[in-house]
Amino acid sequence: MTPLVVYAFSPRIGDLDLYFKTARAFLAGATPNQDFRFEYPPYALLWFVPAAWVRHTQWEFIPLFGLQLAVMDGFIKWVLLTEGARKWGRAWRSVVPCLAYSVTSWMAALYYLKRYDLIPAALTMAALFALARRRETVAGLALSVGVVTKLYPVVLVPLALAVCWKRGTLGKLVVGLTLGVAPLLPLSAVWPWWGFASFHVDRGLQVESLGASLLWAAHHLGLVQGVLWIHAPAAFELHGAAAEGVRAVSRWLWVVGSLGMAAVGMWSVRRRLPERMEDLARLALGPLVAFIILNPVLSPQFLTWVMGAAALALLSGSRTAPVLILVAAVLSRGVFVGPSYKYGLGIPQTLLLLARNGMLFVAGYLLLRDAWRRVASEDAAPKASAALDYLPASVEAGCAEPAGIGLASQRR
């Protein structure tokens, strides 16, 4: 954790300049989305305000906000160590999830500790942690605060609803969800907080998205003409007729894919209830990865959303999908090496970006396959037990094992 803390307190600005200026404007009495544009959900500003209230200059704000992020990072690693110890005790394998997460976050420090995405990532981890321990009200509260902080955890709400419905504790989850969003009602009287949505509706095809990477590769091959690499207000985007077409298709794929993966997760829970946290994390990865890789807007910090769940998924089941996600998070940094990102990626970085997006896409497919197999294995079990119910009595008697054998097998 030490390298990350050092980087958190470094003077590198990233998006922290935007966080500081908006928080200071708010503290001075300005109204977001009325006196100045605020592109994030409303609770995001509340995370920026404490450090800006205590420190009045940008250079004082940076280390204090970095301390907030370091605390979130420490919480996620504590959860990973706790779950590893629950699974493996004091064996060396118990630290693998935390170690994998630590290495990935260190390699991704360029955006990991200079964006506020670590805060909703920690809230999502807290929601999964509480849900696994049957603290449904706390899980609902953490999930709803995460949604109003960064929006993306909304794709996990159907999964949480399905789990609590299956347990018979849906009411507790709804109470937590309601408590988390309740402040929005009085807030609406003084702040048009919903204005952030219009900003994102107007965004173009971000250069790192799956569709943009394929289009830019086609541009390099000379298959598509008129593709422009533009520095838009919030990110670098591809513009032109072809880019507009890809953007339109990407939006539909994004909505349908995210909802579809959420539906598959609910169906899986309906047939077989997950109890361990790593099982919940694996189911959560499905809609999260779909939300990221199919999105026409894909920033590198979005990988922060899935790093914790991917590390947890290493505890059981197939490791291929979580490893692909963690490697993709590491590869994201290579896209920014050199000055070409400002003017249009060269062939080496384009290939790297295609590899990163390909890994995420394959990981999403594998998670979908795992969820399907999880249900299929549950469907096969009742059939086997049903067949045993119809064995003739004489066969049942012949198959019965002596008492001593049964006791011996129980001891093993």
From TrEMBL:
Where's it mainly located? Answer: membrane
Under the heading Pfam families, the entry gives: GT87
Residue runs in coiled coils: none
Q: Where are the transmembrane segments?
A: 61-80, 92-113, 138-161, 173-194, 214-236, 248-268, 280-298, 305-331, 351-368
Compartments in which it is found: Cell membrane
Keywords linked to the UniProt accession: Cell membrane, Membrane, Transferase, Transmembrane, Transmembrane helix
Question: GO molecular function of the protein, one example?
Answer: hexosyltransferase activity
Under what name is this protein listed? DUF2029 domain-containing protein
